[in-house]
Each structure stands twice: as structure tokens, then as C-alpha cells.
Amino acid sequence: MGKVCFPGPYAVGRMSAVPNLPVPDLELAERVSSRADPAAAGERYIEYGRQIRDSIEALLPTEWSWDGRRVLDFGCGAGRVLRHLIDTGAELHGCDIDRPSIEWLKRHMSPPAHFSCNSEQPGLDFTSDSFDLVYAISVFTHLADDWSAWLLELRRILKPDGLLVATFLGEGMTRAVTGEDWDETRFGMNVLNHGQSWNLGGPTVLHSPWWIHEHWGRAFEILELMPTGFASAPGGGHGAVLMRPRPGEPTTAELEAIDSGDDRELSALRHNIHQLHRENERARHWLAELEASRSWRMTAPFRAIRRTFGGSSAEDPRGR
Hints:
34% of the residues lie in helices and 22% in strands.
């Protein structure tokens, strides 16, 4: 699938028609779209971006106006949402760790929008108190280790009365992600696939609304929290939260501190340990099946040669 233009101006709900904008190629579109039907990745990129924009607008205060606002799409990918905001009158910025996506956006959507590539480690090249709105779609759903530092970094660049919209995986995704029924006593911030590469989606992080109120709420005033239904039907999909910075200078340690008075904290941590044990067992079975396969035995000499001349093989999960 090469670069194609979406045919003709199209309606975008309450906003004016957006001019023709190119659609990224299959590889970039798939990174932010469903992989169920690769042939429809471009259409999914367009449609899901529109749904996300509509859901963001539904969360914002009724008096909100995009015109003249400074807005950041944190984790913008290939611009699936920003393309639907081009004609709003807002000053649009997008950043992401994926350099190919940012390079594509710089070629095709800048101007009018502005794009930059950021590191995986917290820190953004924006001045403090400079944005009216930051939205992070499918970002904190994958941040296992640096979530508190990134949350405070977004708080730093927001104006004191600025707004943050962030999505999370909760009860609407638990069955699909874990195969379990939802039980808030077993979910706080539960991390799965820790250490998985970003090319494979990175870690998977689930949150309970009570945990978000307790931990994110130490840095932000939570104005609204929808447990499910973000860019999807109620009862499914992601949850989302609308927040405004609290006064003060909270630290990462303060955000991460466990509330010993809430039994759900310990219950969720204990359940996450059980989940990690199950992951480990599945990995052990997968390795055993792989090593018993005919193809693995046949390719053993080639892996030995590679280890001799080029170090351990990346294809061998045990470095053998």
C-alpha cells in the first residue's frame, strides 16, 4: 500500500471539512490501527482517528474551544488524531518515539502542525506552562517503569489551568487482554509483558479507576473519569480520564507510594505476581515446543556458526 490521498474533503463532525491529506503507507498505518485486516489499515487509520477526536471533545468542558489553543498529541504516531484537528485554529504539536512516523508527519503535515521525536526516557523539549491541552492516547497503557516521571513531565508543560486527557486499559479490555473477568480488587496498576520490545507493542498496563484516583490524583485534579467506551461502545474499549494540574510540586516517589490503608493495593499487587507467574509458565512451554521442533534442530548448526563469529543469536531466546 503506497501513499494515497483520501478522496475529497470529508465531514468531521462539528468541525469544518479537512483538506486532502495523504494517508501513511501500510507499515506506519498499522502501528496505530487494528492489524485484523491489513488491507483496511488506511481506512481504519482515518476512522479511528476521527472516533478518538470525537471522544476527546466529549470529555472536554462544554465551553472548550480549540481556536487559539496550544495542543500537544503525546505519542502521536502517524498523526491519526492530529489530521482531524488541522482546521480547528489550534496550534498543533505532536511528538513520538517512532522516528519514521515523525519524519513522515514532517513531510506531509508540517506545516501547519509541528512535530518532534522524543526519547523513551522522560523529558520533552517544551517550556514549562506552555500547553492548554495535552492528550495521550494509548500511551500510559504501555508505560510500566517511567509512568510517574512522564506524568509529571506532562504536568510541567501544561499551563496551571491546562487539561490532560489520557486513556487507560480497564474493565473494558480485561477479558481481551488477560482472559479474566473484571474484579477491581485484583487490578490496581497491573503490568504484563514487561520488557517486551516496542516493535511488539511494549508492555501492557492495566489500571483500575480507584488506582488512578489515588495515584494520578496526587498530581492532578481528576475532573472526569470514564471507565470504558473511549472511541468505542460503552462497556468496551479503553477508559479515559480528564485532569487538571494540582498546585504544588509532587515527586515520582509520592505518586508511586502505596496507600497501606487500602486493602486493594496489596490485593492487586499479589494478583499481578500471579499473572507474571502465568506469563513465565507460558514462555517456558513455548520454549520447550520450539526446541522440540524439527526446524529448530535443523537450524542449530547455523546458530552455532553465528555465535562463533558474531556473538549470541538474537533468534535464540536463550542465546544458544
